[in-house]
Amino acid sequence: MLTLSSSTEMHPTVERIAGAVGAIILGKDTQIRLSLACLLARGHLLIEDVPGVGKTSLAYVLAKALGLHFQRIQFTSDLLPADILGVAVYERETGQFKFHPGPVFSQVVLADEVNRATPKTQSALLEAMEENQVTIEGETRALPKPFFVIATQNPVHQIGTFPLPESQLDRFLMRIQLGYPDATAERALLRGADRRRLIENMEPVIDPARLAELQAEVDQVHVSDALLDYAQALIQFSRESAQFPLGLSPRAALALLHCSRAWALVHGRAAVMPEDLQAVLPSVVTHRLRGGDEQSVRDPAALLLESVALP
User: Fold this and answer.
1) 262: closest CA among 215, 205, 212?
2) What letter would DSSP give residue 70?
3) Strand pairing class (139-142; 133-136)
4) Residue 237 and residue 18: Cα distance in Å, rounded?
């Protein structure tokens, strides 16, 4: 049974994980907590930013800290679905086809620069991300548990990118941006040890069994009727406002609820508070809302929070 307090202290196990990750990914405490909340809520994470700010490193360090098997797929314009899912190869000795699983059969899959691949290849992840399985040549194969996709994306205005369609974006529970480090963190980065060596020497903080327990604790975090009223009001505003051609779907509403619960657990609370929902709202809704004008596209979460009052 969940026995968290209502304090603002972090969950002790999550704090150890965040500390280990933060020792390598410097100056990004909020992004690390959001990433952990996403994974604890059994979601998939999209990290969008310019090259070189640590997107790939964050994914690798998270996998190492959680004790999970990790595979990296470099997405390019000539990548094919079979390069991700696997392929059946005919073996002359046995006279049968043998399936060779692709890198998607891993607990943590890093889809690096996912928007550099063509839409056909991007779509190879749709079934995997939604149903934790893949269907190849008429046969459905289950993926490992847990199964997390952490994708990195270059800004869509950069050369050689293919924008992710709405259906693909909606598969990601959360989207975050890392940004450049502040001066203090960057100085520590420049003076410190090689990040790659630190990652190689990193030991897991927990094992997959403990991760499953944490995910079960997320399900026990209480959500009051008043909090649900607030969440529904935000969702309904997105559907009725002329600022958004398409409002948030029921899947987006569930995503907001799951992330709010996970964020509450990360911060040691047994019940979701309004500030938990508000903290995760930008990461949950920004990639799902397409605004009708330039201003609302830039910050749809701010528009929602300004327009919808607490019940």
Assistant:
1) 215
2) E
3) antiparallel
4) 34
Q: Examine the pLDDT at 236 and tell me if it is beyond 90.
A: yes
Q: Tell me which amino acid residue 188 is.
A: A
CA gap 232, 159 in Å, rounded: 39
**Nearest one of 278, 270, 275 to 301, comparing CA atoms:** 278
| Residue 89: strand pairing partners | 98
Structural element, H or E, at residue 73:
strand 70-74
Return d(Cα 170, Cα 190) in angstroms, integer: 37
Pairing of strands 86-91, 96-101: antiparallel
For the chain, which domains are there? 10-208 (3.40.50.300), 221-311 (1.10.8.80)
Residue 119 tokens read as 């839409």
The whole-angstrom separation of Cα 33 and Cα 20 is 12
β-bridge partners, 133: 142
Q: Quick one: CA torsion of 18, 23, 26, 27, rounded to 10 degrees?
A: 50
Encode pLDDT of 268-297 as tens digits.
999 999 999 999 999 999 988 864 444 444
Phi (first) and psi of residue 273, to 5 degrees: -105, 160
> Does residue 146 have a cis bond before it (omega within 30 degrees)?
yes
pTM above 0.85, yes or no: yes
- Return the pLDDT at 294: 44
* Mean pLDDT for the stretch of residues 228-233: 95
Residue 92: DSSP 8-state: T
Q: What is the SS3 string spanning 197-266?
A: HHHHCCCCCCCHHHHHHHHHHHHHCECCHHHHHHHHHHHHHHHHCCCCCCCCCHHHHHHHHHHHHHHHHH
Residues 4-35: pLDDT tens digits?
Answer: 444 458 899 999 999 999 999 998 999 999 99
Which residue, 154, 192, 151, 186, is CA-closest to 171? 151
